[in-house]
């Protein structure tokens, strides 16, 4: 009972640490947004004041030029002059203002289609503050042994279970020679290395392989991939991998991925989920569409 109480106490302390860390990250994100909006507001106001001054000077200049003319001549019909409007262009300053600010904000923000879950990370890994990359730490961290956490060395899962549709994410493994990535049922056992239900691509001892509960295939790609695109299509029942840099198809699993599944990753060196470009349109806020899988079943290679 005392041992259990000690574990509970450590869990409580970890919860407080998580809360303070998350609160600080939220504050940092909003500070950046507030600063951007304040600077943008000042820039818009400055542009308005500049136009106000220019228009006032223009009108005053015309008034002075006409001051010495005879009243009759001022009423004479003249050819229309091609000159700028004397009034403030309100539409230029406030028309679709929120949309235009949002369009500029896309350079400030980034979108990651998959966020890693700190509650699943193995204590041998260090997770980045933005929850997009992991790498082996210099020492094993002291973390609660909660049910979500993987015992398997250097393992971590995505934060959201997937149940339907098509999902795509890009992973940068860089120079790592020991990594794995794939999907596993959310209900899979996470302790004592019992994770047998997993469909994954991996590299070990400079050999690329594709493994599933039914077996393992050694692959012979033209180039060992450094950046990999994963596409899970739960409607068609496929999980595809391709080389993001060369567009070479690497492997496609075919399986009825019923129930909720989690993306799962394992790496000794740094592994990073890549951000995607954000486009602001009149219809929606979107990232690039996932590519179609390039056919079921077999690896490429000689």
UniProtKB/TrEMBL annotation:
InterPro entries attached to this UniProt entry: B30.2/SPRY, B30.2/SPRY_sf, Butyrophylin_SPRY, ConA-like_dom_sf, PRY, SPRY_dom, TRIM/RBCC
Which PROSITE patterns does the record cross-reference, listed alphabetically? B302_SPRY
What sections of the sequence does the record tag as coiled-coil? 19-57
Keyword Metal-binding among record annotations: no
Concerning SMART domains, the annotation shows: PRY
Keyword Coiled coil listed? yes
Tell me the keywords, alphabetical order.
Coiled coil
Membrane-crossing residue ranges in chain numbering: none
**Residue ranges annotated for the B30.2/SPRY domain, each copy included:** 94-287
List the protein's name: Nuclear factor 7, ovary
Organism in which the protein naturally occurs: Liparis tanakae (Tanaka's snailfish)
